[in-house]
Amino acid sequence: MSASSANDSPRVTAAQPAFDGVDLHALAGRLGTPLYAYSATAIRQRIAGLQTALAGLDATICYAVKANSNLAILGLMADAGLGADIVSAGELKRALAAGIPAARIVFSGVGKTDDEIDAALEAGIARFNVESLDELHAIERVAGTRSATANAAVRINPDVDALTHAKISTGRAENKFGVSIAEARRWFAERAQLRHVRLDGLHVHIGSQILDLDPFRLALHRVAAFWRELVQAGHPLASIDVGGGLGVRYRAGQDQPIDAGDYAAVVREALAGFDGRLLLEPGRYLVAEAGVLLTRVLRIKEGTERRFLVLDAAMNDLLRPSLYDAWHDIVPVSPEPRPPATYDVVGPVCETGDTFARGRELPECAPGDLLAIQGAGAYGASMASTYNSRPLVAEVLLDEGRYAVIRRRQTYEEMVAGEQPAQDWQAP
Ligand SMILES: *Cc1c(COP(=O)(O)O)cnc(C)c1O
After folding, report:
1. I want to staple 39 with a disulfide (CB 3.0 to 4.6 A). Which of 10, 94, 165, 187 is the partner?
2. Could you tell me if 256 and 132 lie in one domain?
3. Residue of the CA atom closest to atom 10 of ligand 1
4. Residue 108: what pLDDT?
5. 86 in ligand 1 pocket by Cβ < 6 Å?
6. What is the pLDDT of residue 233?
7. Is the separation of the CB atoms in 106 and 154 below 8 Å?
8. Of ligand 1's atoms, which has the minimum distance to the CA of residue 208?
9. 247 and 141 in a common domain
């Protein structure tokens, strides 16, 4: 249903130096590098593909803000009628500022503070995805102080192996996320004691970058069996949140992403007969392939054993290769054919881990060449830091031949804002 639209999306290729109709050389010349560039067209196509796949279901897509939290990206989500999955008060503010209605916001995460719970109640969010008994009690207490009622779903840890990288797996019994079905059963049995929490939902999110439908199927069947048991026990549910985790193509010719239609079919089948609201929390799936990190070659260093391609982008700009050993395709933005060469592609940061790729075969490069690191639209800019005192890079949105800067390059003054000499010494 929707796979074709995903594959026809704007994409940088070696033969095509434009992205969403924008010439990347001109863009990099004007705005400098490193630079994040996102295709609005590609993001809209992903959203539309998923919405088509879900047609006929009472389903709300709550975009996982942490994947790319730029206000302009959130604005695209708001325009398309999406909600948001947030994990902090900062993300709540961003989602609201971008025009996402509070009634479409769900709040996940194991460490919500009282202040964050209060801010979410104040805003009137749709639902809390609750990760522990202690958190359930905190929500009950904070909602009590406002004489409010919080809608809540239990995050189930279905003990399913998502067959993904260990650092992005969240649905195993050993992970910090969610509670066992046995524990959730006790919460429902005792839910009458909750005066300020309406516990009437289930939530599951088993991990990220999942390329196989089986873990989703298994997890959803466990959730469905529990939902039916709860109905039998007199606890009807208003919502089931199936989480995010849909994988994307980081490596052309290797990664086979899940088709949105196939995924929706699994959801339909597993939750057939459920008459409440379905919630989905895709992050990466909507934005990863819509973004590139543009970077220039600073120099080529011939080491004794390896040849290094030193870029002006580094791990502080795009952490995924260092953090998750993630593969990102790297494409020279140049149509001329060149002989192949093998490089370790590295950044200037003083860490051995500042490596985008080892032993990567690329067309031969020269200093000044422009490269596009692909699949950088998710968990790129949102995970960036100023490590090594490198200011945050600019972000730009492309849309059919036009561009708009959606975050200007950070200045030195902005980077050090808030720091000051130790002079106003005080006793606590
Ligand atoms: C991170 C996260 C998501 C989004 O994950 P993706 O792999 O980007 O789709 C959804 N739900 C929860 C609870 C998350 O923590």
Report:
1. 10
2. yes
3. 244
4. 97
5. no
6. 97
7. no
8. 7
9. yes
Strand, coil or helix: 374: coil
360 is in an annotated binding site: no
User: Which pLDDT score, from 0 to 100, does residue 425 have?
Assistant: 95
- Please report, in angstroms and rounded to a whole number, the separation of the first and last CA atoms in the chain: 62
- Please report which helix (H) or strand (E) contains residue 269, including its range: helix 260-270
Name residue, tokens 């975050």: 407
Q: Is the same domain home to 245 and 316?
A: no
Phi and psi of 83, rounded to 5°? -100, -165
Strands 340-346, 355-363: parallel, antiparallel or unpaired by DSSP?
A: antiparallel
Shared domain check, 354 and 224:
no
Residue 131 near ligand 1, beta carbon < 6 Å: no
Q: By CB neighbour count within 10 A (0-12 exposed, 13-18 middle, 19+ buried), where does 1 fall?
A: middle
- Was 144 annotated as part of a binding site? no
Look at residue 170 in the predicted model and tell me its pLDDT.
Answer: 74
Residue 350 annotated in active site: yes
- One-letter amino acid at 258 equals I
Does residue 148 sit in the same domain as residue 277? yes
Q: Which two tokens stand for residue 351?
A: 């860490």
Which one is catalytic: 350, 352, 421, 423? 350
Mark the ranges of the chain whose per-residue pLDDT is less than 50. Answer: 1-6
For residue 116, count CB atoms less than 10 angstroms from its CB and return exposed for 0-12, middle for 13-18, buried for 19 or more. Answer: buried
**Domain membership flag for residue 115:** yes
**Residue 287 and residue 280: Cα distance in Å, rounded?**
15
Predicted local distance difference test score (pLDDT) of residue 74: 99
Coil, helix or strand at residue 283: coil
| Alpha carbon of 308 to ligand 1 centroid (Å) | 34
Is 379 labelled as part of a ligand binding site?
yes
List beta partners, residue 404.
397
3-class DSSP state of 233: coil
Question: Ligand 1 centroid to 85 CA: how many Å?
Answer: 8
Ligand 1 pocket check for 108: Cβ under 6 Å: yes
Q: Are strands 197-203 and 150-155 parallel, antiparallel or unpaired?
A: parallel
Residue 216's domain spans which residues?
108-282
Q: Quick one: 122 and 252 in the same domain?
A: yes
This prediction has a pTM of 0.95
Domain count, the chain: 2
Please report the pLDDT score of residue 261 as a whole number: 97
Are 254 and 303 part of one and the same domain?
no
Q: Is residue 234 part of a domain?
A: yes
- For residue 151, give both structure tokens: 């809608």
- C-alpha–C-alpha distance, residues 377 and 131, integer Å: 28
How far, in Å, CA of 286 to CA of 43, rounded?
6
